[in-house]
Amino acid sequence: MASFKRTTIYLLLAVLLMGTTTAAASTESQSQEQDNTEIVSIREWQGIPAEGMNEHWAKRLFQWGIAQNVIHGYGYPNQSLKPDQVVTEAEFLKMLYRAMGIALPNASNAYVSSISWTDDLYHMAGYFNHPTVGDNNFSMRLQPITKLSAAEIISASQGVHYTGSDAITYLIGHGIANSEASSSEQFDGDSTFSRAEALQWIRQLALRDKLVMHERPVAPTDRSLLPALPNTPFAVITDFSTEPVTQEDFNLFGSGDLPIVRFGDMKRTVDEQLGDSEGKDIFNFDTYPLLSAHFNTNGRLDAWSIDSDTNATSSITPSLRTNKGIVLGESTLSDIIHQYGSAGVNVSNREVVKFYYEKADDGTYRDISIYDPIQNIEKVYMIVFFVDLETKVVYHVTASSFKNALSVF
């Protein structure tokens, strides 16, 4: 079982990395050593362009939205993103439903002169009984949506039937209003909002793990089930926050203060600590009772991974954890966000949370956006968490060099 689950996780990582590689449009060139005996592969990571947004506050939001297939630009070939343009109801539905993983075939033609691309959106809204003004009024589909209408759609997607101020109360009480308002009056439901603000709202839903589609009940939901409004408003989670890391954060710890393995350890050191490996898996990782480890051509550890099944099969069962205290089988998504930040959360696969770091010449690390160009991938490292969608508990952790991840997966 452990081997099967580990293989499944690695295959999922492979799909995720290939998807990122495709989206980021990496290029590869080759150069030969002077003796012509070794081919050296050099990659330049191109990132996700956000045309015309270099100085805009929502640049990373749009890079994320493009990479996650949530939003696209207007027209070809320039693909203008128009972040400050007021968002329409149809655009908001398209962004929300795509973020929730709903396939919308006609929505790919969203920004041509025709408006037929909206049909699938409104068929979907009708199927899930989500309230829209454009369902029976075709001309309203491309008119600006108000914050109140958006609140009613979002609350409906959560499986409740509230309207007006009740829908706003529901969102505020659950911390998914993308606002610091503590009342429906402060929320200002009659106002419109921009495409950038709409994308930020969807990002907030992702950070609260609320991007799951539900059908709205036909009958109104009992108002007594509305959450009590807080005395102080919910804090809006920073869209892409990060916390500092050091070399220690790439080591793996057990119940004690000393790491079980250190990133960069020689294989013989790991064998002395854990015993001889039980063999290699299909991804060339050495398997040990507590973990799987990959060693580079110099014999140094450049990736390790742990999962709940691996830990359960060991006669020694320490509480495997990261340096920041994320404990396998115990910590949750909210713990990850608290300890590492919100930057790693995505919507294309809600199960996986990924962080990327670049190592400087002085040995320090800085968070980097995978959506920006990377000049030297050999200096980039990643920490990946897998979270159970039902319990929100961490069941797998991987630390790896980015170069290894690309070559192995």
Q: How would you sum up this structure, described in words?
A:
The protein has 409 residues and is an alpha+beta fold. It has 2 domains: 211 residues, no CATH class; 167 residues, no CATH class. It is 29% helix and 14% strand. A 7-stranded antiparallel beta sheet has the order 5-6-7-11-10-8-9, with helices on both faces. The radius of gyration is 23 Å and the shape is elongated. About 6% of the residues have low confidence.
What's a quick, concise take on this entry?
The chain is built from twelve helices and eleven strands.
Whole-number radius of gyration?
A: 23 Å
Sheet with most strands: strand arrangement: 5-6-7-11-10-8-9
Instruction: Kindly state the percentage of residues in helix.
Output: 25-40%
- Main sheet characteristics: 7 strands, antiparallel
Structural class: alpha+beta
Order of helices and strands: HEEHHHHHHHEEHEEEHHEEEEH
Q: In percent, how much strand structure appears in the residues?
A: 5-15%
- Terminal CA distance reads 21 Å
Number of helices: 12
What is the residue-averaged pLDDT? 85
Shape, per Cα inertia axes: elongated
Which residues form runs of ≥5 with pLDDT under 50?
A: 21-43
The strand count comes to 11
Task: Count the domains.
Answer: 2
InterPro entries: SLH_dom
Protein name: SLH domain-containing protein
Keywords: Signal
Organism: Paenibacillus macquariensis
Task: Please give the structural blueprint.
Elements: H1 2-24, E1 27-32, E2 39-44, H2 59-67, H3 89-99, H4 119-127, H5 147-157, H6 164-173, H7 184-187, H8 195-207, E3 252-253, E4 259-261, H9 267-274, E5 286-287, E6 292-295, E7 301-307, H10 308-312, H11 333-340, E8 352-359, E9 365-367, E10 380-387, E11 394-401, H12 402-408
Antiparallel strand pairs: 1-2, 3-4, 5-6, 6-7, 7-11, 8-9, 8-10, 10-11
Keywords: Signal
InterPro entries: SLH_dom (IPR001119)
Protein name: SLH domain-containing protein
